[in-house]
Amino acid sequence: MIAWKCFEMHSHTRHSDGEFTPEELLRYARKFLYDGIALTDHNTMSGLDALGPEEERIPVLPGIEWTTYYGHMLVLGADTYVDWRSARPDTIDEYTGAIKRAGGLIGIAHPFNLGGPLCTGCHWDFQVKNWDNIDYIEVWSEPHPQRHFKNHLAFQWWTDLLNQGRRLAATAGWDWHGPAEPGQTLPSATWLGLREGDFRLAGLREALGAGRVLVSSGPFPDIRLLQGEKRLYPGDTLERGPFHLRVAVDDTKRRAIWDSFDIRTERLCLVHNGKPVKSVPAASPWEESFDLAPGWIRLEGYGSLKADQDQLLFFSSPYYLG
User: Fold this and answer.
1) CATH placement of domain 2-215
2) Number of separate helices (H) and strands (E) present in the chain
3) How confident is the model at residue 289 (pLDDT cuts 50, 70, 90)?
4) pTM higher than 0.70, yes or no?
5) For 140-146, what is the mean pLDDT?
6) 162 phi and psi, to 5 degrees?
7) What stretch of H or E contains 150?
8) CA-to-CA distance for 8 and 26, rounded, in angstroms?
9) φ, ψ (nearest 5 deg) of residue 202
10) CA 61, CA 74: separation in Å to the nearest integer?
């Protein structure tokens, strides 16, 4: 049984350059109806010690934002600290390998942020050779992600890497540094598919590492993909042959957070190896069978966001076709 839970995957406190205390961050996370967060202060995990008893707060995925001259990298759930200070563009694989041996998950943060002199190190300049060590790319950064051209570049880069045979999930990250109010700010949500709703660290690592990830600025895409009697989820690999897809847009989840932005889902699109296979209106559930060549697929949802039309509102991480 998979339970989808809503996370903010990139946040900061006063233990680095944020305005929040750790306790304040958790209070605001509840206001924005997150089920959990990843705490990713720059180059430190000291904020974790100030979170209070685990049973009295929402779940926190322990992490760090590696902050270097050559890029920022989100490291989540590692059992031991891996020093970032000597990493260079051509040696990053040594460090990602050490993080994986420590049980950590690795995400590339805001890869197309402006770099120096405006934000030294914010642009991704590391030369990854072993992509098996990278779990995901933060393709949507900051609230109102559709506004930012850097996110369009990151989304296309992710798509290109998938077409090269890489297996990578995608997330959204607020890069949350300070107070904001629901109804005034539109943050996206990263939905993790947890087995039996397992909020323990092992369960969170398993879901993100498996690629069971959906991202949305508004409604939740309820995707049911069946092959025979088997239900599959993002990150899974389908066998060769037909599969059955059913998608319904659930506009009840976290509606209080996005409703004031007049979001309307208008069409659903199935993408295969970077190209649309079919696009249908989202007014009613979409149910159809497909038989596609090897590669990957993802679901995308488009609609209006205030006065802006045909905006990407949500998407899934990929399913892989054998």
Assistant:
1) 3.20.20.140
2) 5, 19
3) very high
4) yes
5) 97
6) -60, -40
7) helix 149-163
8) 11
9) -60, -40
10) 11
